[in-house]
Design brief:
The chain is α/β, with parallel strands linked by helices and about 850 residues long. The chain is built from 24 helices and 26 strands. Helix 9 packs antiparallel against helix 10 and helix 10 crosses helix 11.
């Protein structure tokens, strides 16, 4: 890693020595920025005074090199009363710089291709330090007599049977070991090498001590995890879930031999029987064997491929265990939770079908590499994919500890990659394309849930502040990365980068969340760790838990800060973070979160000089501004033509018999629609249940006039058929009926005119009421779906469908930003209902990468 020159370091020290009396700050990614990547900092102020511009300054000669105007204020967030984003993506000249806005000056930072170079290997140091058995950092061994079995009687293991469970990693600053987190960590390490092999160096031996062994260090670490998992699945009918329990928490100590479990120096090894087990005074909510066993199987399948060139015996041993672990996961479908003895705190995982999807996919991938039949595994994976299309915490405000784990649905990405392989199941070519598109779209929908929250604050923060929020942040950034990789859609690239930036200082506290990274910046120095607290040993690379809601922090027992809070000025009613040994909720490093970070940093380093977005392309914040400007014109007929989004709009006055079909199609496709109904349609009792259902499902509902009046002559468009007074009264009555369904005027600011027919007067009158007139995008025949055979302009549904597809394929920007009109009901004389083509149309367009958004989302974001 390069270091800043001496003159810049002096400036750095001065700038980093901020005090609570300061009122304005600029937060940056302290690692720096790549020349062709997205480059954003965040300004925050405790004052209400507005700052209008910012400057990027060369740290060597103090000369401004780039500047910009503040185009959007985000207002209050956390400790700040005012905030905005500083987007300098368009500047790509390597060098040392800092930012200035108002009285705030950022710490200096580098722009260079190598700012992430070596970071993934650096983070691996913490994984080695967490090793149980032989620990290379201490050059000593611990917990060498593990362990004795519990709950395994049905499998021929009476309680207290000796089980060799030595090895693996300690989970966090305690010395418990969980199969679920260890398997997830191992899979991430194996993936990191598979996807980015050139990133990793070879400086360590297999035991973690210094000395190259012709094996990339990341695979040495992955192999350590695989070896332990093999021990935890010694034969086909035996699988174990964890070593030790919360009796571990007797005191902070260095790893050694523990005797608090009643069996001398042995610790308990908990068997997976698929039934509830101990949770303090109660039982946990275990329902089956699937979640942990499937994680085992996934790792073994991947290890059988990735370890073969380096650890042949380990790879060969993994393949049969992949099969037996898979069968064990099917033994009793359900989730396996962890065990506690003294307290109720556990890893309360409640989902398991995502684990099953990954294991079937990983197994199918391994079968494919062996030229074996994959059909049954592929079918099983796809069935499970539909069980959990979107990871449930995405967009949520809170969750139980590790409730939805892993924090990312790895199976979606692995299955989509497998389906992208032209040599895989070529006989399923068309079906593969549809399946893949569905998986990718589910990723987008999950990201969009987070973006719905993130877009309202300057940090683009949409991750809930629950325990291990940094783990969620890392996983979400990876999901954004995978979505961009699979779809080619860059609309969330800035959101992706914002989550990576958050981990390295672009957060309200201005600190990195990774111990020792960067070496010259602000990073944790007093984490909740025995290594640092008792011995002053560094824990390089450890990713700490991260900020939590203030409400969570204030409810915890036993937290007492040991030193003055250096981040006191940045604590808020929203969230807190402390670099203090006494705060176990925000500052404890975790093994599995760190393993995920290895993958994320490997991806960032591999990107290197590859552009995330080209520097000529406007940044996301700029696109937002442009789209809002477009929406303020007299009439809007199209959204951003650079983004592959479509707004499906449905207008109804007399007929709506197709609404159940449409609503069901949208739900199955995870798409949102926009419905414009007249006042007469809203007030018709027979429509009430359907309208309420559309509202509940999160669709946009808007106005289409009260009585479906024709505003202008068909042949002489400038000739008005209504007065201004009648127009406004009619529109008002429409909104009164909408209000009965809880649809507020402020939330339904788009107006679709009756018959989709208007003139300049109607557009101006609409604007006077505070609404925006919209209409469908011309170019297809979709608006002709109301016609019946006796009319001269009749078009059958096949013709309409083909016109949409042809337009999408022939135009440079296809249907990007399209407002596509479909009628949810027609005159009975039309038997050929186009809304029955909607499922086919959505599937086809999703395979082409289009997303379906509400009209307000598409035009305002």
């Amino acid at each position: 890693m390069k270091f800043l020159p001496a003159a810049t370091l002096i400036i750095s020290i001065l700038l980093l020595n901020t005090h609570a009396s300061f009122s304005q700050w600029i937060r940056i990614n302290q690692l720096g920025y790549t020349p062709n990547g997205i480059k954003v900092a965040v300004y925050g102020s405790k004052e209400d005074e507005m700052v209008n511009e910012w400057q990027l300054i060369n740290a060597e000669n103090m000369q401004p090199v780039f500047s910009g105007k503040v185009d959007r204020y985000f207002g209050a967030y956390g400790p700040f009363k005012q905030s905005f984003r500083i987007n300098f993506t368009a500047f790509g000249q390597p060098g040392n710089y800092f930012l200035r806005a108002g009285s705030a000056v950022s710490p200096p930072f580098r722009i260079d291709e190598d700012v992430y170079k070596g970071t993934a290997d650096f983070v691996l140091q913490y994984m080695r330090q967490q090793r149980c058995g032989f620990n290379p950092f201490l050059k000593d061994s611990c917990h060498t007599q593990d362990g004795y079995s519990l709950y395994g009687k049905a499998a021929g293991l009476p309680d207290s049977t000796y089980i060799d469970a030595v090895g693996g990693w300690h989970d966090a600053s305690d010395y418990l070991q969980y199969a679920t987190t260890s398997a997830n960590a191992t899979y991430h390490l194996l993936m990191a090498y598979r996807d980015y092999p050139a990133v990793f160096a070879d400086t360590k031996a297999a035991n973690g001590l210094d000395g190259a062994n012709k094996v990339p260090d990341v695979l040495d670490e992955a192999a350590w995890g695989v070896q332990w998992l093999l021990k935890m699945h010694p034969n086909a009918n035996q699988l174990f879930n964890q070593v030790a329990d919360d009796r571990d928490h007797i005191a902070m100590r260095m790893p050694g031999l523990d005797s608090q479990y009643g069996k001398k120096y042995q610790r308990p090894v908990y068997f997976i029987d698929g039934n509830p087990q101990q949770r303090g005074k109660f039982l946990n909510a275990t329902t089956g064997t699937s979640s942990t066993a499937a994680k085992f199987s996934s790792v073994f399948s991947l290890a059988s491929q990735q370890l073969m060139p380096f650890y042949k015996n380990l790879a060969q041993a993994s393949w049969p265990k992949a099969q037996t672990a898979l069968k064990y996961s099917e033994k009793k479908p359900g989730v396996t939770q962890t065990v506690s003895v003294r307290s109720p705190y556990i890893y309360a995982e409640t989902n398991w079908t995502d684990d099953m999807e990954l294991q079937y996919t990983a197994y199918a991938t391994a079968q494919h590499s062996r030229k074996l039949s994959t059909q049954s595994m592929l079918d099983a994976a796809y069935v499970m994919a539909f069980k959990e299309p979107i990871t449930p915490w995405l967009g949520a405000d809170t969750a139980a500890h590790y409730q939805w784990y892993p924090f990312i649905n790895i199976g979606h990405r692995e299955l989509a990659k497998l389906l992208s392989d032209k040599n895989f199941a070529p006989e399923l070519a068309g079906k593969k394309e549809v399946m893949r598109a569905q998986l990718v779209n589910w990723y987008r929908l999950g990201i969009d849930k987070v973006w719905g929250k993130a877009k309202h604050n300057a940090f683009y923060r949409g991750i809930p502040f629950i325990w291990c929020s940094n783990n969620l942040t890392t996983s979400f950034a990876i999901q954004c990365n995978w979505y961009r990789e699979l779809s080619g859609d860059e609309q969330y690239a800035e959101l992706e980068q914002a989550n990576l930036d958050w981990l390295f200082g672009c957060n309200p506290w201005g600190t990195s969340m990774v111990y020792g990274l960067p070496s010259q910046g602000d990073s944790p120095s007093d984490p909740h760790s025995a290594f640092t607290h008792l011995k002053n040993y560094p824990i390089n690379g450890g990713l700490v838990d991260g900020p939590v809601y203030s409400s969570i922090y204030n409810s915890l027992i036993g937290i007492k800060l040991n030193d003055a809070d250096e981040y006191e000025a940045f604590q808020s009613d929203l969230a807190v973070y402390h670099d203090d040994y006494g705060d176990y909720s925000t500052n404890e490093p975790t093994m599995d979160g760190t393993a995920s970070l290895v993958y994320l940093l490997a991806a960032a380093e591999a990107a290197g000089n590859k552009a995330i977005v080209t520097i000529e392309k406007p940044a996301l914040a700029t696109r937002v501004s442009a789209k809002k400007s477009n929406a303020s014109t007299a009439v809007t007929t199209r959204g951003d033509s650079t983004q592959k989004n479509i707004a499906l709009i449905f207008s109804a006055h007399d007929f709506g018999e197709g609404l159940p079909v449409i609503a069901n199609t949208l739900k199955k496709s995870y798409a949102k629609g926009s419905f414009f109904f007249t006042g007469d349609f809203y007030r018709t009792p027979a429509n009430s249940a359907m309208i309420a259902s559309l509202v509940a499902d999160g669709h946009y509902l808007g106005a289409h006039s009260d009585k479906h009046l024709l505003y202008a002559d068909w042949n002489k468009r400038d000739s008005l058929l209504v007065s201004k007074e009648l127009f406004k009264k009619d529109l008002l009555m429409n909104y009164i009926e909408m209000g009965k369904f809880g649809i507020d005027f402020k939330e339904a600011g788009y107006f679709l005119p009756p018959y989709e027919w208007y003139n300049d007067s109607i557009a101006n009158w609409t604007k006077e009421t505070g609404l925006q007139l919209i209409n469908f995008t011309p170019g297809t025949l979709s608006n002709a779906d109301y016609t019946w055979p006796e009319l001269k302009n009749y078009r059958n549904s096949k013709t309409i469908y083909e016109s949409i597809i042809n337009f999408a394929n022939k135009q440079t920007n296809g249907l990007n930003g399209f407002i596509l009109l479909i009628h949810p009901g027609t005159d009975p004389r039309r038997k050929d209902k186009f809304y029955n083509y909607l499922p086919k149309l959505i599937i086809y367009l999703q395979t082409k990468g289009y997303g379906f958004r509400r009209i307000d989302e598409m035009l305002e974001e």
